[in-house]
Every structure is written in C-alpha cells, then in structure tokens.
C-alpha cells in the first residue's frame, strides 16, 4: 500500500512562528496548470485557476482505481461541518506533506498527510449561530443557508512561495447586540500563526456601498492573481435583495482592498457558486444570480441582472458587450451563478477559446466565445436544454472539464433529459460552431461535486464524486464513487462514510483521494502498480 512520504519538517526563520511576515507571493495559486507534475500540491478550488477539476496522477490507472481502499491507519478528526475543499501542500522531499481542512466552526487544521496527525490547529473566532442571526432580524427566516453555524464556507487558497494560507471566516464579534463580521485571514502554513497586518475586516472596505456581513456568504473559491486575492460573495440563498461582491485584497497591503459589486437600489445578483472566481490567466470570470426585484429592470446591467461577466484585474467591469453574456429571456429569471464559468480550449473548433456556463433554473448548459461574450443573446456558441430543474434535477455544481483520446467532456452533478442518474457527462465536439451532446449518465446517490484524474493529462480518465446530502436535505449514500470518464462505468464504490455535506469536493494527491466529511477527513489509497 502506498503512503505519503514521512520526512522531517525543516523550518527556516522566515517561515517559522518567530517571524510571521510572509515572503513575496508567487501567484502560483492563480497560475497553477490543469495538469500535474512533480509538485502534487492542490493550492485552490478544483486544482486550477480555471476550476477545471483536472488532476494528473500516474498511479490512478483504471485497474489500480478498482482496488482503492480506505486507509485504516489515517485518522484525522475536525470540529464542525466541512463545505470547503481540502488543500494539499507537497513537501517535495524537504518537509511533510500537509493537508488543510477548514470547517464551519472556524477551525483550521493542518494534518500530516501520511497518517492524519495534527501538525497545528487554530480556531479563528466564534462561528455565527444561524438561528440567532435570524432572530436578531438581520436575516429573514425564509432564507435557506448553511446550518446550524456559519464560519468558513468557501475554499481558501495556498501561496507556496510565502507559505501562506488565505481564507475567509464569518465571525460573531458581539452577542449583545448580535454582530457578525467577515475577516480575511493569512495564516502561516507551518504553524498557523496569523501574518502581520492580518486579518482584514471587510466592513472597512471603501466602496460606494456598505458591506453587510450579516447578509453576505462566502461560498466561492478564492483566486490569487498578481499579488491580489479575489474573494467572491453572495447572500443567503440570494433572497435578501442579494448583493454580489468580488473583493480585491492586496496580499502586501490588505487595508488597500477594493471591490466590485453588483449593486443597485434594489439589490444585485450574488456571486455564490463553489468555483467562485475563475481565470484563464488574463481575465477573471464570474457568474451572477437572478433575484426578484419589486421593479424589474427593462435593460440589462451588471447591477441588476443575471449573467456571465469578464472582469479585469482590479477588479473592474467594462460594461461592454464583449465582456458579458445574458440569455435573451433574462427578464424571466435564471441562475447562472449556480456554477462558476469555466474557461477551456477546444482545438479544431471555431471559436476554440471557450467558456462553459450552467443555469440552474432554465436547465441549460451554455458554451460562449471567450473572446467575445456578446452581450444579451449574442456570443452564444452552443446550448443544450433539458438539464437542471426543468430537466430532472438541480444544477448546483462545479463542473469538471477534461479531454481524453475519445473527446472533450464536461461532467456535473445534475440530471439530463437523455438519461437517468444524478451525474451527467456532456461531450463537446469541435466544429464551427462546437456542438454539445449527452455522453453518459450515472448515479452517485447524492450531490457531491466531481473531479477528474488522469495518468498523463488525457489517459485513464476517472471521475470522482461523493454521494453527499442532496440540496433538499435528502441524505445521500455518503460513498466515494469512481467512474470511467469516457463511459460512466463504475470502477470503485467505497463503504459509507459519516454524513457528508452537500457540494463537497474531493482532491487527488500522490495516489490518494482525500474527502472532507462531517467532523472527519478520509484518505483513500490506490494500490501501487
């Protein structure tokens, strides 16, 4: 059985608890490639800035995956529900491999990846009690949200050069009156100490609009580009006249934070998908949700309406038609924000630089021309309907996009009109324009979000997903599933774990698959070839 290498962790003065000042950020988290290499670190949500969910691990052949087992020697417990994806820092022969888990109890733990032993553990503040938040009148009782406590929900990001973990925590700072705030933390990966000048209090943002921490929820993955963190926000179930934000926090000077917001007198669409802010290395992309306005707008603007938007670093939005897309029936509602847009390349297609988006309410997958999003109705390359609510199940997802010798696929948690199950793979075929068809469907008995492993970037594609709790609260099977990426055929199904929260995402690292369950981190081992 393969295990993680266990070596001595070496400290140097600039990385130890003696000096909590970080080195210059590397932006490796933002620019990490979709395919793997000698460094197996998982620095951010879905393993890349594009949020493709693609991993490369030579050990994970189809034959080897069939023999996957739960590692009985790995014991790692945490306090609280886990929604954020685990992160992994490769020791690269000079230190321990570390796994980081953050929970709704505002607990952050660094585990030794070889056995689950705690390297350090830190609580960032008192989590927010949702029932008290409702009774205080700051959040309507009709709004659904993470329960019973809110702490760390979105996935943070690791910067390996400065050896810093960045994440957002929602904290109860006063009980009478009941006051909550969002803080961005910068923690040393070596001992959990808070870097000098942090945490950053988001209520101090200089903006034309005030940041309402009680109504804001930070679900989406944090991005890092050019030394700046990009942190997305929506509101609780987007039913509070939602206010969407992308907050830009310079790592060298967090007090110089700025923000872009989808605000208007009536509200604004939230940025709440698990993928959060995505990037193709040049631009940032977000999806915003529809919300009910007492005075529906008659002309699309980023302040009021659902859509897919390209943002420049800063962040800023040009408002030009090349930099946003909305469906022609946008006034009828929809919810592109259920999935962050995923940039990808399709060689041989015209156009070939594409953007993949889903809409939960209309049940559609949309492929856009990334060079010209086109505005209302234009820029559309391909669209398939019959998915999501109107096609048999919610699309509340972070899709994984991958290419095999048989073609390019996008797999997501949601039903298709063409076949049964709760996990669907679409095949995207090059052409002028590209076309989309349903490749296969499978049932993972829950609402976990998929990732894909390959042995070299294209071969032995394996889709991994957990049968988590459904969006309506229905209990899933709580098992890890591995499926053939080309056919959907089951390769491995684990024994049931403890209850798992909806939308959790596993990771792959060094022949292991790591899953954050309720109060526990699991390590599944693929046998050595």
Structure, explained:
This protein has 529 residues and is mostly beta strands. It is built from 3 helices and 38 strands. The chain has a 5-stranded mixed beta sheet with strand order 1-32-33-34-35. β4 (87-89) and β5 form a beta hairpin. It is globular, with a radius of gyration of 21 Å. The protein starts with 27 loop residues before the first helix and ends with a strand.
Overall, the morphology is globular
Give the class from helix and strand content and strand pairing: mainly beta
Helical proportion, percent range: under 10%
Which ranges are low-confidence, i.e. pLDDT below 50, for 5 or more consecutive residues?
1-23, 28-37, 388-393
Proportion in β-strands: 25-35%
What's the N-to-C terminus distance? Answer: 10 Å
Major sheet summary line: 5 strands, mixed
The average pLDDT score comes to: 84
Rounded radius of gyration (Å) = 21 Å
Number of helical regions: 3
């Amino acid at each position: 059985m393969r295990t993680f290498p266990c070596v001595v962790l070496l400290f140097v003065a600039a990385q130890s608890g003696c000096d909590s000042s970080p080195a210059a950020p590397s932006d490796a988290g933002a620019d990490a490639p979709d395919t793997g290499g000698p460094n197996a670190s998982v620095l951010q949500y879905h393993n890349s800035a594009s949020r493709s969910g693609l991993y490369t691990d030579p050990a994970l052949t189809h034959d080897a995956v069939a023999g996957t087992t739960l590692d009985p020697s790995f014991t790692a417990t945490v306090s609280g529900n886990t929604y954020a994806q685990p992160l992994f820092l490769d020791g690269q022969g000079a230190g321990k491999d570390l796994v980081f888990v953050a929970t709704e109890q505002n607990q952050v733990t660094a585990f030794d990846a070889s056995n689950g032993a705690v390297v350090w553990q830190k609580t960032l503040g008192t989590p927010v009690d949702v029932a008290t938040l409702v009774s205080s009148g700051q959040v309507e009782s009709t709004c659904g949200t993470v329960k019973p406590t809110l702490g760390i929900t979105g996935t943070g990001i690791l910067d390996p050069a400065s050896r810093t973990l960045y994440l957002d925590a929602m904290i109860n700072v006063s009980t009478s009156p009941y006051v909550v705030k969002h803080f961005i933390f910068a923690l040393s990966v070596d001992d959990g100490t808070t870097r000098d000048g942090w945490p950053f209090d988001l209520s101090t943002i200089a903006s034309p609009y005030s940041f309402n921490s009680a109504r804001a929820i930070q679900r989406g993955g944090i991005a890092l580009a050019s030394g700046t963190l990009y942190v997305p926000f929506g509101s609780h179930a987007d039913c509070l006249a939602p206010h969407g934000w992308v907050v830009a926090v310079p790592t060298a000077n967090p007090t110089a934070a700025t923000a872009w917001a989808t605000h208007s007198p009536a509200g604004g669409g939230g940025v709440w998908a698990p993928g959060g802010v995505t990037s193709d290395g040049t631009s940032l992309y977000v999806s915003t949700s529809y919300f009910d306005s007492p005075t529906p707008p008659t002309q699309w603007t980023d302040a009021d309406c659902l859509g897919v938007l390209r943002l420049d670093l800063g962040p800023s939005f040009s408002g030009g038609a090349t930099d946003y897309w909305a469906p022609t029936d946008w006034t009828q509602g929809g919810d592109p924000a259920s999935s962050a847009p995923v940039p990808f390349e399709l060689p041989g297609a015209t156009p070939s630089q594409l953007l993949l988006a889903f809409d939960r309410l209309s049940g559609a997958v949309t492929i856009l021309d990334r060079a010209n999003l086109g505005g209302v109705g234009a820029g559309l390359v391909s669209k398939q309907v019959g998915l999501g609510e109107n096609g048999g199940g919610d699309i509340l997802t972070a899709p994984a996009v991958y290419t095999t010798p048989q073609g390019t696929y996008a797999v997501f948690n949601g039903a298709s009109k063409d076949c049964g199950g709760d996990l669907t793979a679409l095949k995207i075929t090059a052409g002028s324009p590209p076309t989309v068809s349903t490749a296969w469907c499978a049932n993972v008995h829950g609402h976990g979000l998929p990732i894909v492993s390959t042995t070299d970037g294209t071969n032995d594609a394996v889709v991994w997903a957990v049968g988590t709790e459904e969006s309506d609260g229905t209990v899933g099977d709580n098992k890890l599933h591995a499926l053939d990426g080309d056919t959907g055929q089951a390769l491995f199904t684990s024994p049931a774990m403890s209850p798992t929260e909806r939308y959790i995402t596993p990771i792959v690292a060094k022949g292991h698959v790591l899953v954050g369950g309720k109060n526990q981190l699991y390590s599944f081992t693929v046998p050595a070839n």
